[in-house]
Amino acid sequence: MLVVTTENIPGYRIVEVKGTTFGLIVRARGIGGDIMAGLRSVVGGEIKEYTVLLEDARKQALDRMIKNANAMGANAVVMFRFDSGSMGNMGEVVAYGTAVVVEPV
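Predicted structure:
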């Protein structure tokens, strides 16, 4: 599946727009990660526990978006974006874009 942040894909033309596709994941940080992150925030630097958590969440959201686009009959996603938010100790990541059918020009 082609996934791009642009409106068009060089060398392809959009022949059908299937609609909005998205993948959503909500993850909770564990108490162990919170303790380690709290200690690291005192001395400064990267908080690796949260970096890993966010990287994994983004990968899962992207995979879910692609699965959704496949189910819609698309072979590409254009205008792909990530968004995120938090609620208490939970983090939300959503991957979204427009599912389309493309063919080489």
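Summary: The chain is about 35% helix and 45% strand.
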